[in-house]
Amino acid sequence: MAEVLTAEAVRDELGGLAGWSQDPAGITRTVELASFPDAIGLVDRIAVTAEELDHHPDIDIRWRTVTFRCVTHSAGGVTRRDIELARRIDEIVGGTR
Ligand SMILES: C[C@H](O)[C@H](O)[C@H]1CNC2=NC(N)=NC(=O)C2=N1
């Protein structure tokens, strides 16, 4: 099972993950798109990557605002898999706006 990172280790990683915040439930980034279809399109692209990684963000969609939370449910905290997923989400968000 993947090792849960300390809050300090997550904070160090987040230094390179601008736009993410940390709380006990995981690391979170909120993205506002131009429209609801754009928001769904972003989620669709991230779904493909999540399947590739076999690691899946918790996703909240409210009209054109999407919040991604990365936490490793089986480990009960944030692991390197979440940091990798967050990086991939950043790449996809960066490529769509
Ligand atoms: C078998 C498979 O690896 C697990 O069910 C995966 C799938 N995606 C997952 N995603 C996340 N975020 N946490 C998990 O514990 C998890 N488990």
UniProtKB/TrEMBL annotation:
Record keyword Nucleotide-binding present: no
Molecular function GO terms recorded: 4-alpha-hydroxytetrahydrobiopterin dehydratase activity
Superkingdom of origin organism: Bacteria
Annotated Pfam families: Pterin_4a
Keyword Transcription: no
Membrane-spanning residues: none
Keywords noted in UniProt: Lyase
Xref: InterPro entries: PCD_sf, Pterin_deHydtase
Catalysis performed (reactions): (4aS,6R)-4a-hydroxy-L-erythro-5,6,7,8-tetrahydrobiopterin = (6R)-L-erythro-6,7-dihydrobiopterin + H2O
Enzyme's top EC category: lyase
Protein EC: 4.2.1.96
Protein family according to the UniProt entry: Belongs to the pterin-4-alpha-carbinolamine dehydratase family.
Official protein name in the record: Putative pterin-4-alpha-carbinolamine dehydratase
Species the sequence originates in: Micromonospora fiedleri
Lineage of the species this protein comes from: Bacteria, Bacillati, Actinomycetota, Actinomycetes, Micromonosporales
